[in-house]
Amino acid sequence: MATKLMDKILLSRFKGCLVGGVVGDCIGALYEGLSHVKTNDLIERINKLEKDRQTQREHGTKPAEKYGFSYTDDTAMARSVAGSLIDKGQFDAPDMGKRFAEEYFREPDRGYGGSIAAVFDGIRDTNTTDVYQPASKQFEGSGSYGNGGAMRIAPAALFTFCDNNATKLISLVSSITRLTHTNHLAIHGAILVALAVDQSLRLPQDTAVDCDEFIEALIIKLRPLEEEHDKSSMGPPPLKKNSKRVLDASATPYCAKLKRIKEMLKEPNLKTATVVEELGTDVSALGSVPAAVLCFLKAAIQNIPKLKDHNKFSQTVLYAITLGGDTDTVATMAGAMAGALYGMEAIPESWRYYCEGVADAETMAEHFFNMTQAPTVQ
């Protein structure tokens, strides 16, 4: 009986992760690009959503053929990641790359970044033998440092859940991200999201979240990657014997921001402007991923002013949107982290009803869950 209950909870959290990402994307997309989102206006819109849904329930209205809120490239690419991992049972770079390209050329108006078309064009080129090559040529060989890898990566954490091996997860995330983003900042940002989702899945639901512990666990896993990259890009060794370069904040930028998040979470009156200025909410990975982590943890440990009438999951997503900027991506990343902790039941039914792609996300989560139930082959 206890095992069945645990399985039911885990399935709910798997669904919460993927569906949380979808609703964050769909609702966040309504405010994308705005420098300022008024909390009261956002709440009014969400309350109207619930009232409209209640009216439909009372009158027995059937679900609309077209959803009220459409998903963006965030969900489109996450679906390709999940679909490839599920169908192949392992990471298959050509297959996943092909899915990215096919999805893009089928529906190019999902809000993709302007430079990504060239990558997908290269991937689908029959003469391309290395699917990583098109992305590696971006921006004169430096690769994109955008958040396109981070926004789609949550399925990787579900796929490797049973391994409980950070090294395997990091390797998988790196491989998935490099299909479109080869800059180390993009790769490390995607790794941070995946690690945060993985840690969220493993948190006990009946215990308060220890933010310091959560962040320290992320830093322990991420710091070696940042330091290793910094060492490899230092150039010629120093002339002075036995000299050592000190790894400063610029050498480990994600760890530096994670440490700052620790401090921010202890500030009683943290201002939105401070979060935006210091963590960022733009389309770069470094300028958006840390903000998503903050949104998740802030909602977990306190009732956010003006949002206290909403549950922890809703507070996470709504707070992410109020930060403005790349609202769909910050909300989808934070929503995946929160959904992984609070489970499917915490996601408002009206949000699930009106957001496109929810049913498919549920189905994919079930497939990932079933992988955890499969017997291990010796």
UniProtKB/TrEMBL annotation:
Q: Which Pfam families match?
A: ADP_ribosyl_GH
Supply the EC number(s): 3.2.1.143
Q: Name one GO cellular component term.
A: chromosome
InterPro entries per record? ADP-ribosylglycohydrolase, Ribosyl_crysJ1, Ribosyl_crysJ1_sf
| GO terms of molecular function | metal ion binding; poly(ADP-ribose) glycohydrolase activity
Identify which cofactors the protein needs according to its UniProt entry: Mg(2+)
Q: What is its main location?
A: nucleus
Q: Does the entry feature the keyword DNA repair, yes or no?
A: yes
Subcellular location(s) of the protein: Chromosome; Cytoplasm; Mitochondrion matrix; Nucleus
Which GO BP terms, alphabetically? DNA repair; peptidyl-serine ADP-deribosylation
Q: Which reaction does it catalyse?
A: alpha-NAD(+) + H2O = ADP-D-ribose + nicotinamide + H(+)
The alphabetical list of record keywords is: Chromosome, Cytoplasm, DNA damage, DNA repair, Hydrolase, Magnesium, Metal-binding, Mitochondrion, Nucleus
Q: Which family does it belong to?
A: Belongs to the ADP-ribosylglycohydrolase family.
Self-association state and partner proteins as the record states? Monomer.
* Protein name per the record: ADP-ribosylhydrolase ARH3
Naturally occurring in which organism (per UniProt) = Lymnaea stagnalis (Great pond snail)
